[in-house]
Structure formats: C-alpha cells, structure tokens
Specification:
This protein has about 260 residues and is α/β, with parallel strands linked by helices. The chain contains nine helices and eleven strands. The strands form two sheets. Strands 3, 4, 5, 6, 7, 8, 9, 10 and 11 form a nine-stranded mixed β-sheet that branches. A hairpin with a 2-residue loop joins strand 7 (about 160-165) and strand 8 (about 170). It is globular.
Length: about 260
C-alpha cells in the first residue's frame, strides 16, 4: 500500500501518533519498562542489543534518566507501576534528525542496508525508505546468500534483511543476524554499508562495529537510546514498535520521507 501523500504536517502527525498509540499512552506498561532498564543495568546482554556498555550504565536510575530525556517516559523513579508514555514531540523530533541523515545519504549516493527485528510492525517502514533512497540514487545493499544465525536463515524481503525460521519471519532482538551479514560481506570482499537503517540488535550491532546507524526503538528497549546518548547511534526514534495495524505507521513514514526531501 502506498504511503499517504501529501505527508501530514507536524501537528497532524502528533495527533495520529497519539490516536494509534504509537506514542503517547503506549501499550508497554511501566513495570515492563523498569524491568528492562534494571536488566540492562545488571549486565544482561540480551538487553544490550549488540552494543558494549562495560560498566557505564550499571545504575538503573541513570538509564531511566536517559529514557525520560530521549523517549519521554515518566522520570519519577518512585513511579513503579501503571501507564507509561512516549512523548510524541520527541518522536517527531527524532524523525526530523533521522531525515537529515537520510538526506545526507541520498546526496552522497551512499550504500545503505535495511534490517528489522520487528517484521510484523516495521517492515513496510523500512521498505518505503529503501525504495525512496534507491530512487534518489543510493545503493541498497544486497546481502550475501545462504546466511544463517540463531537457528534461522538471514535473507532479504522487499529490500529489508530479516530472520526466518520455519517459513515465518521472526521477531528478534539478537545482534547475530547483523553479525552474519557484515561478516558475510567481508568474506566476499565487498564494501560494508555506509549507513544502516534498522532496529533492535540489527542496529546495535552495526553501530557497535562503527557503521553509522539510525533506528527505531520502543520505550522498553533502552540500549539504542543509550547508544545515541554516547554517540554510537546517530539517531534513535522512540515509538511503540508493534501496534495493532502496521498501516498505522504509514503517516510517520510519509512525514519522514517528506522531511528528508525524498
């Protein structure tokens, strides 16, 4: 389905994000957010999303402070249960920053790799961006064939790298699939991407390996926000990454591409 044209303006998009719960009062509860912040701070690498934090974020309250600043969750550490939020103003602000990165890639005709660990929600977002960048002269990276990771096959569907297991596209936080792609490109003597547009461990792995990366992340996945705070990720857009209908993301995608002049 084509994304809406003309693209929504800022105020219209904010209303739509809140209405669809992509931002505003999101479905992810406060208890889940705080649990994930604590697990990251305690060194659980599942929540590091392929990044290396050492002991820099071993205080849950420091993680919460960054998430309040970059994502808009409630900043009161005593608020332990109930509704939490993503500030839609921060979502749109991050989209504007991502648009600048996409514009740079288009102007430079860069090699760009797309990947998602949330194919049920974000596949079309990535697909539309890839199509727009190709039309603008970018080289959309084709990944090597036959790659495997985490017990599944890593392949591309509509220009977007995904993990497949048992004929099903998998939701994954793992950095393993992106590791397989980057190592596979090097084995074949091919150039690495100049930009990665992704989410979850796909984005974190690329950023950790020094590749410029932008991505999308939910309020219960703090790693990419911490990476942007440290300068490892270029941009992380806060949003609920799997709402009821993937078509709800179409206005967001249209806004992003319009802001990038694509």
């Amino acid at each position: 389905m084509p994304i809406p044209r003309p693209a929504p303006g800022r105020a219209e998009l904010i209303d739509q994000l809140v209405h669809t719960r992509i931002a505003g009062n999101v479905a992810t509860p406060r208890e889940n957010n705080l649990s994930h912040y604590r697990l990251l701070a305690n060194g659980d690498r599942h929540f590091w999303l392929g990044l290396e934090f050492g002991d820099r974020w071993n205080d849950e309250q420091d993680v919460l402070a960054v998430m309040a600043d970059r994502c808009g969750v409630i900043d009161d550490p005593e608020y332990r249960a109930g509704q939490d939020i993503i500030d839609p103003e921060l979502t749109v602000g991050a989209l504007d920053r991502m648009a600048s990165v996409l514009r740079r890639a288009a102007d430079g005709g860069e090699r760009v790799l797309f990947a998602t660990g949330h194919p049920g929600g974000l596949l079309d977002v990535h697909r539309h961006i890839a199509e727009a960048l190709r039309q603008a002269g970018c080289d959309i990276v084709v990944i090597p064939g036959g790659l495997q990771a985490d017990g599944g096959l890593v392949f591309q569907f509509a220009d977007v790298a995904v993990l497949e297991q048992g004929a099903t596209l998998w939701h994954t936080h793992s950095p393993g699939p992106m590791t397989a792609i980057l190592d596979g490109l090097l084995r074949e003597g091919r150039a690495l991407p100049q930009l990665v547009v992704a989410d979850h461990g796909w984005a974190g792995c690329a950023a950790q390996r020094g590749i410029p990366a932008v991505g999308f992340a939910d309020c219960n996945d703090p790693a990419l926000f911490l990476a942007e705070e440290e300068g490892t990720m270029e941009v992380t857009v806060p949003l609920d990454d799997h709402v009821l209908d993937p078509r709800f993301y179409d206005p967001l995608t249209a806004y992003l591409l319009s802001a990038a002049g694509l």
